[in-house]
């Protein structure tokens, strides 16, 4: 399936008088990982939050976010809540804060399943075990009775992903999902995200500042600056022949990128420019 | 260890209270010579920050010795440290918390200049230091909140260097910065330290930046240094299985779509060091 799962068009967000997003256009497709890159403050997290309807109070939003031929902006809260967590799910940067510290993993995994899908306790538990197995948390049955602090950072992020997947959403917004993880643990979570898109046909919006991560898993890459998408294209093209000078300047500062800094002399030249 | 080693750490062990005690640093030998840049890399919890804190006296070692220019480094107390030890300066990870929010940056850099003067060393004025780290000297009268993260870290570097240290320690000094400024700030630290003849111990989890600026690399795992050697040797031809896994896990921003190697979840690497 290559149809658009989610279409963002002319998305604008203001907080007070400052424009946070100035007309963002992005299309998420099923089975595809759409990367959203940019430096801190560029608006990439706000884009994810606007899609989920989780913008901070006081933010005003305009433009269009269409899911399944349905306009999400301006949807009554009841209808929005019915979609959030069920059809559209989100994974946050820090699993230490996104998971509730005092509720068992089992409760956090089955709560919204029972709410959205009206599953019985037993059926929800069965689904929870299946999900934990899917994200490769060892001993899924035992894990349900344990609490977040009893897991490592990587395991916690896998649990957060399992929670997001519980109701079989079609769209997953992953906001810096590996930034808080060690590089060896990150590799495992990246493989998992790629598999989810490939096997479940999930449309993934991967928000990250790490272009290495982007290069590994994204099919398409969009680059944001000051609330605008300055470039959006196929991964390989964006990395090897960036169309926008800003993308080129980001790559030029990275060790290992094509045209990136390869030696101390390169870095010095970059610093002097 | 050569004659010129400024910092000499031998058999260092640091423990945190607990049952059983957590041995954060478990028998580490490390040396930094004048004018040398040593990169210490490892993942969270490997003990690299504890090692840095022990080296500048912020935590008390359980065993082992730390000597700086031949004299032991004692734990830091409530009183300021002796003038001699101001030759050892540190740059911390988070420039939002390491600078005083209510003092002008010129005054904070001035602290470093005065520390140098107290030892009889000469140090240029605060404004000159700002210029050296690539900032406008006229900004000396501003406060930290008026600067971006990258600029603040440059200010923290200027403050540390204004004390004219013989050894500069950076504990993850670039990890709070945007990717586009990381390599530049790391190179700036290297150049300013080396130009003044100081040694630099640069601690980071980001191997791809560290390898650009370090003369030697030390890889830490579970409280020990498992591999150490000249940067090129370690980067091009890692010998220890943990170093290999660490290097293989770094995603390369080349647009190829190549996945980093997935970790072996049950990996329990040998602690036998490879030293070159």
Tell me the number of strands of chain A. Answer: 10
Low-confidence stretches of chain B: none
The N- to C-terminal Cα distance of chain B equals 13 Å
- Read across the widest sheet of chain B, the strand sequence of neighbours is 6-7-8-3-9-10-11
In percent, how much strand structure appears in the residues of chain A? 15-25%
Q: How would you describe the oligomerization state of the chains in this entry?
A: heterodimer
Radius of gyration of chain A: 19 Å
The CATH topology of chain B is what? Rossmann fold
Number of domains of chain B: 1
CATH architecture of chain B: 3-Layer(aba) Sandwich
What is the N-to-C succession of helices and strands of chain A?
EEEHEEHEHHHHHEHEHEEHHH
The percent range for helix content of chain A is 40-55%
Supply the number of helical segments of chain A: 12
Q: Would you report the number of β strands of chain B?
A: 11
What is the straight-line distance between the termini of chain A?
Answer: 46 Å
Instruction: Provide the structure class of chain A.
Output: alpha/beta
Topology:
The complex is a heterodimer of chains A (273) and B (276).
Chain A: E1 4-15, E2 18-29, E3 33-37, H1 44-52, E4 59-67, E5 70-71, H2 77-83, E6 88-91, H3 95-98, H4 105-117, H5 121-134, H6 140-143, H7 153-165, E7 171-175, H8 183-200, E8 203-207, H9 211-217, E9 220-225, E10 228-234, H10 235-240, H11 245-252, H12 264-272
Parallel strand pairs in A: 3-8, 3-9, 6-7, 7-8
Antiparallel strand pairs in A: 1-2, 1-4, 4-5, 9-10
Helix pairs in contact in A: 4-5, 5-7, 7-8
Chain B: E1 5-16, E2 22-33, E3 37-41, H1 48-55, E4 63-68, E5 71-72, E6 88-91, H2 95-98, H3 105-118, H4 126-132, H5 149-162, E7 167-171, H6 179-195, E8 199-204, H7 207-213, E9 216-221, E10 224-230, H8 231-236, H9 241-248, E11 274-275
Parallel strand pairs in B: 3-8, 3-9, 6-7, 7-8, 10-11
Antiparallel strand pairs in B: 1-2, 1-4, 4-5, 9-10
